[in-house]
Amino acid sequence: MQQKSNRIIVTVIGHDKVGIIANVSTVLADAHANIIDISQTTMDEFFAMIMMVDVEKASVPFDEIKRRLNAKGVEMGLSIDAQHEDVFKYMHRI
Amino acid sequence: MPMPFSAQEIVETIRMVQMENLDIRTITLGISLRGCAHPHFETMASNVYDTVCRRAEKLIAAGDAIQREYGIPIINKRISVTPIALVAESSAPDGYIAVAHALDRAAAEVGVNFIGGFSALVHKGMTGGDRALIAAIPEALTSTERVCASVNIGTTRAGINMDAVADMGHIVKETAARSADRGGLGCAKLVVFCNAVEDNPFMAGAFHGIGEPECVINVGVSGPGVVLTAVRREPDADFGQLANAIKRTAFKVTRMGELVGRAASDKLGVPFGIVDLSLAPTPALGDSVAHILEAMGLERVGTHGSTAALALLNDAVKKGGAMASSYVGGLSGAFIPVSEDAGMIDAAMMGTLTFDKLEAMTCVCSVGLDMIAIPGDTPAATISAIIADEAAIGMINHKTTAVRIIPAPGSKVGDVIEFGGLLGRAPVMAVHRESSAAFIRRGGRIPAPLQGLNN
């Protein structure tokens, strides 16, 4: 299968607090990953921030970015995860 | 560029993976061993070992890479092979154990936990090779770790080979006896089928069918937890709405299988076969098919209404799955193994779920009597009669049915057999004590039903 994109979706779920965007952006910038769009919503009582990120020119592989984001999440008491865009494309678009 | 997905869609996917145990249950590489036949069994066994190792060399690495790339857990990587009775037919009868050991070593070498296909298709009759394979099953399963066996004893087209059914009662007993120190665990790797499918990716009944190509990737997706959440979200929905909610969920889950299957096919350079969307429970919390039926409004699975609830679930899962993938196949539906499902275990221990009710439920589930422990002193003829009943259900209803039961040596009704891991623990369930021996002794073949004469 041809991978059409090198975009990932980063999700941050937890209680809202100061510095979420700054911290996540720093992790991504350090990996040379480019944030394309950010949106946020509330899910039940939780805050959810969603970022679309281009990792085409990233300096580290996807699983390493994911590991760093997970670690930052643990540090901040949030759930931070990243998944390939194709996962959402397959599940929600025909 | 704007975000192409809504926040709800993204959160839904994340929730499925992180909180509801959505996973790819298995990527199964089917491998043809038809080129391995040889009159000398040592050569045949070494051909088998070499072929499996060569074809599956990159399977584990490819699975791990897909898991990393997409962030979807892939629980098992497995292999299915051509029914060994076909491959070893021309070797000496004592070659069958050698080939089982070759399969076991090859599975260990490439790093898969199960390899299926120590199998024979005898629905209309047995060749010498079939007979030798069936006789070798108890030793093969108890002297290897990873090899799984299956025997197809009936089809809608051919009827039921009752001589093979009679033999299988003894084979199940002997396999249990040889693994008595582990509660008869050998029987967990032995499936007796009616209408076996050729592209099933799930163990223990997977084999690479004779109509399949050299190599193929089949993907098994699961997700009882995801469906459970969808059902719980609809406490007041009528059955039409409920079926719709399940279909939507099944569709989304199957799309993941399609994505992973195509990625695996691409990485391995092997054609993509099918996605099998089966609700395959595990003993983990929130991964139970029984709990889905209970969430539909039953106090405990096994009570009246369980068969209707399962029929709705099984059908809605198939309908959702069928629309989601270009090739849906395998067993697609809901599995109801007892020992692998926390809700089934509870219901069996409380006495709500009985053996006879399970048999009724298999008329509408995707497979059959699965992972059920029965008393160790159950006669072989009774086991054969259980197999015959289950095969009759499959034969008449044009569906796959299977029996995987464990007559745990020394056990009595009420005991609990611990298998550990994904195989879980099985409460020993009562079977009828009245004899079926004279029925089984008749032998011969139950003729194909009218349903089979549909040309």
Summarize this, please?
The complex is a heterodimer of chains A (about 90) and B (about 450). Chain A contains 3 helices and 4 strands, in the order E-H-E-E-H-E-H.
Notes on the protein architecture:
The complex is a heterodimer of chains A (94) and B (455). Chain A is of the alpha+beta class and 94 residues long. Chain A has one domain (7-92): 2-Layer Sandwich (Alpha-Beta Plaits), CATH 3.30.70.260. Chain A contains three helices and four strands. In chain A, strands 2-3-1-4 form a four-stranded antiparallel β-sheet. With 455 residues, chain B is α/β, with parallel strands linked by helices. Chain B has two domains: 27-194, Anaerobic Ribonucleotide-triphosphate Reductase Large Chain, CATH 3.20.70; 219-439, Alpha-Beta Barrel (Anaerobic Ribonucleotide-triphosphate Reductase Large Chain), CATH 3.20.70. In chain B, 44% of the residues lie in helices and 17% in strands. Chain B is built from 15 helices and 14 strands. Chain B is globular, with a radius of gyration of 21 Å. The N and C termini of chain B lie far apart (56 Å).
Low-pLDDT stretches of chain A:
none
The CATH homologous superfamily of chain A: ACT domain
Number of domains of chain B: 2
CATH architecture of chain A: 2-Layer Sandwich
Number of helices of chain A: 3
The H/E string of chain B reads HEHHEHHEHEEHEEHHEHHEHHEHEEEHE
CATH class of chain A: Alpha Beta
CATH topology of chain A: Alpha-Beta Plaits
Question: What structural category arises from helix and sheet content of chain B?
Answer: alpha/beta
What is the averaged pLDDT score of chain B? 93
Strand content of chain A: 35-45%
Provide the gyration radius of chain B in Å.
Answer: 21 Å
Biggest pleated-sheet summary of chain B: 12 strands, mixed
Q: Share of helix among residues of chain A?
A: 25-40%
Unreliable parts of chain B: none
Derived from helix and strand composition plus strand pairing, the structural class of chain A reads alpha+beta
Provide the CATH top-level class of the largest domain in chain B: Alpha Beta
